[in-house]
Amino acid sequence: MRLVSLNDITLEMTLAKPIYYNDRILLNIDCKDISKYRERLIEFGINYVYINDELSEGIAIEDIIKDETRQKSKKIIKDTLNSRLNNIFYITETQVANIQNVVYDMVDEISQSDEVIVNLLDIKAYDSYTFSHSVNVTVLSLILGKALYYTREQLIKLGIGALLHDFGKTMIPLEILNKPDKLTDEEFEIVKEHSRLGYERLKDQTLISPLSRAVILSHHEKVDGTGYPKGLKNDEIHDYAKIVAIADVFDSLNSDRVYRKRWPTYKIVDFILSNVDKHFEKQFVNKFLKYIAVYPNGTFVTLSNGQKAIVQKQNKNCPTKPIVKIIQDMDGRKMSQTVNLMDQLDLVVVISHEGESYN
Fold first, then answer.
1. Which residues contact 158 (CB under 8 A, 6 or more apart)?
2. What does the DSSP 8-state code read for residue 28?
3. Which are the contacts of 129, defined by CB distance < 8 A and separation ≥ 6?
4. Which residues have C-beta within 8 Å of that of residue 232, sequence separation ≥ 6?
5. Residue among 117, 116, 83 at smallest CA distance from 99
6. Parallel/antiparallel/unpaired status of strands 24-27 and 48-52
7. Is pTM beyond 0.85 here?
8. Cys staple from 253: which of 28, 167, 200, 263, with CB 3.0 to 4.6 Å?
9. Which has the closest alpha carbon to 222: 207, 203, 241?
10. DSSP label at 46?
């Protein structure tokens, strides 16, 4: 399996993961002739798909949580955030119970999973970005919480805060949230209100832990004090909010938006590292990046000796040195040789072609 841009789809490729739209399967596994759906998928904001082909044979890209748990989580957060349709900007006891139950499932699955390296990009249609993003931020936050040896109770509080971190956006005008162009300074100030508004609406919701609510209020605070809404710094910011801040930025940059294309993983990693001790807590970033595949499975890469390869598997605790299958030598001749870059100290990845294909 590998991730491919819709512009690079060829006839021998079959769909490796289903494509969802409006809570239903748009295209299912093993769908062939994907190119005939290209324009429609792009209209929905879907620019990449997971495919199977000869080059990606034997490459596994496993999700950290079950597909049914991911879809259930999206539906629950969608039902919760769509309360704006009825001008009800609060969460009912039933909605809180649903959120708690799905977070229990996510915590249990992540706690039991041996898969610790995040390879998977969740395909998001424009219409479901907010819901998919909330779920991804929760998964990423829980992975970091697990790495920090949080108890189940701590993980649940962290997960509920992460799943609801953007609740305040239900109170931001849709014409601003969905604007395809760059926001004006005035519009950005309105969007920045979402963290305070979300917290204010939920601060008296006793079924949600104060620590979960702290995530909603403070996930845009930065350790150097330049964040919002209060300009908190360092230890003034709760650890849960610091964790969600990292996950929030990672998934935001890893997503196609109306106004920009997703960033490749290595570029996101560089951005997060460049903002250590400014936006993000160093100890959490260092731990988080141990569980992120800088060059995800199925990614085409160019090695320092000029050879072309496809990433097959990750080496735990060394995300920059995966196991690769070399498919072209430095002169462009086809070849097939598996190499563990951990065993080749002088051989490194110099270019990542994430989501691209070789001719």
1. 141, 142, 145, 150, 211, 212, 215, 240, 243, 244
2. -
3. 45, 255, 257
4. 218, 221, 225
5. 83
6. unpaired
7. yes
8. 263
9. 241
10. -
